[in-house]
Every structure is written in C-alpha cells, then in structure tokens.
Amino acid sequence: MFDALSGLPEQCIRAWELGMALTVSARAEIRQVMVTGLGGSAIGGDLLRIFAGKRLPVPVTVNRDYVLPKFVGPQTLLFATSYSGNTEETLSAYREAREKGAQIIALTTGGKLKAMAEKDGVPVITVPGGISPRAATGYLFLPTLAVLQKLGLLEPLDEQVAELSRHLQAMREQLKPETPLAENRAKQVAINFFQRIPVIWGASGTSEVVAQRWKGQVNENAKAPAYWNVFPELNHNELVGFQKPEELLRQLYIVILRDTQDHPRVQKRYAITREIMGGAVAGMDEIEATGNGDLARLYSLIYPGDYASVYLALLYGIDPGPVKVIDQLKARLAEQ
Ligand code: PA5
C-alpha cells in the first residue's frame, strides 16, 4: 500500500495519457454525464462530479447501484468504472446502459467488463492492475477528465494535471514513512485517530467527496469505523448531537478539511462550530488544501488521508492491503 501511495504522482500522469489516447466522438449531443461504479471505483466518479460539476453545462451524477435512473438514454455519456471489471452491480448497470442506448466508455483493468465492452464495440480505457482499487484514484478519475476534454466539454487541463503530479511529489516527501512525526501531518492524524472513532467533515462542492474518501480509507485500510459529513448541512443537524452520551462522544476525533475556495459563509462556520462543540469530543484538527489548480487542491486533501489511514492500520497492527471481508461477501454472492 505504501508503494501504491508513493506512486500516485506518476499514476496521475499515466492515467491522463491513457485517457488522452482514447479515440472518442459523441454519437448524439451529451445532456448528462454519469459514472456507474462502487467503492474505490465510484470515488473517481465523485471526484468528477465535484471537479467537472463546476465547469460543465450538463449534470454529472454517480450511480452506485445495479439499476440506472430512468433519464439515462442516448444522450447520456456513461463511464462504467470497475477496477477489477467484475463487480456485479457495475456489470448490471452496464447491461442496462446498453439497452438504453447510452454512450458508454468502460474504465477497467480487465475482467468481464472489458470482455463485454470489447465484444459490444464499446470503447475501453484499460488501466494497469495490481494495486487496490482505492489506491488507483488517478486511474479511475483522470481518464474521465481526459475524455471530457477530448469531447470539447472541458477546457484543456494538461497544465492542471502536470501541477497535480508535481504537487503530489512534494507532498509525498512530507507524508512518507521516513518523515518524522513532528513534520508528518498524516502520522499526527493517525495518532489522534488511534483507539478513537474518526469523524471527517468537508464542505459541499469542494471537500465533501474528500471527507467521504477519508472515511472509506479508514474503513478499508485500517479496518476501523469512521464517519463523515459536510458543511453547511451538518450545522443543521449533526452539530446538535454532541451532547449525549458524554463518555462515548469523548471517543470521537474530528478532522475538518478546509479550502480557501469553500463558500465564504461556510468558512465563517468552522470557528463558530468549533466553539459550540467545546470539549465534547477527544479533539479536533484541521487540514488545509494547498496548490493552485482545483485538481492539486482536491488531491492535497486526499493524500494526507490516504497516508493517515495506512499509518492507522500500522498502529492497529493490521495489513492495510487485503479487504477480505469484501472478497468474502463477493464470493458468497457469486455462489447464489
Ligand atoms: O476498495 C475496494 O476494494 C472496493 O471498494 C472496490 O473498489 C469495490 O468493491 C468495487 O470493486 P471494483 O473497484 O473492482 O469494481
């Protein structure tokens, strides 16, 4: 997992190249963009929803189900994304998208998805295998941006991708295992999460998907629970719920993911929320986005969480790599 994490800056460049290498053209005007996938493969869709949502004149949605919404049709550009290519929900959604005449692009390492797409004459972006889907966010996200750029739906992003890779290279030095605790934000976060329940708060439209990503990374890498929510919504419900039961609340540790691009009124909410929370939880910390472009800023919040979840696994004496529970569940479903 450490190797996969440290390879992310280079993965992003390779992923971009793979997307740009695809020959694409739209069969009909594109009225919606959808990513269908699950788990580590769906998070790339969420990144697309946040990043492209601000830039595209059409909606971007993520489908995490066997079935597709009714609006999907010939004017839907649909990325069927599955790292393994064998996730049954994604295969089912792919089949339905074919029946509905959607403009499909498969994004996978292989498996049944690649076989079906090739047989159907559907374009496939084949990304390298051998790492966990959750360590492949570059492969599962950047090719979708490249396709949208090639279709003329997004402005050229080559510079942003180059900045992303450079920024991650610099961050890798700060987050890697050799960097001592005093200078390593990811190790500091892991120590604060250890033997506690992590709660991660992001902001709508910027870091919301990153908060969800941190939660998933703690679950899958550290094999521990974690919860997430977003500003401003959490100010309208979750914030009220930090009064009882006091002892259990003191087992929570909250990290707020911040970006100067967050809505100015949301930025005012952070300090007020912390003040209202008082000493209800074990502690609170903040991670601030860095970098210039939106891509670098998004990943500048993702990367510390990725490393922190792996350090947390090590504190628990757990191998972050295998997710036997998911494998078992898929195997048992496959028997039926
Ligand atoms: O991280 C994981 O291993 C899971 O969340 C998988 O991504 C999820 O089960 C879907 O599998 P795939 O990404 O191969 O479609």
UniProtKB/TrEMBL annotation:
Record SUPFAM superfamilies: SIS domain
- Isomerase in keyword set: yes
InterPro entries per UniProt: Glu6P/Mann6P_isomerase_C, SIS_dom, SIS_dom_sf, SIS_PGI/PMI_1
Q: Which Pfam families match?
A: bact-PGI_C
Keywords per UniProt: Isomerase
Per the record, the GO terms for biological process are: carbohydrate derivative metabolic process; carbohydrate metabolic process
Domain annotation SIS: ranges: 23-156
UniProt keyword annotation of Disulfide bond present: no
Q: Which residues form a coiled coil?
A: none
GO MF annotation list: carbohydrate derivative binding; glucose-6-phosphate isomerase activity; mannose-6-phosphate isomerase activity
| CDD domains (alphabetical) | SIS_PGI_PMI_1, SIS_PGI_PMI_2
Similarity comment text for this entry? Belongs to the PGI/PMI family.
Q: What is this protein called?
A: Bifunctional phosphoglucose/phosphomannose isomerase
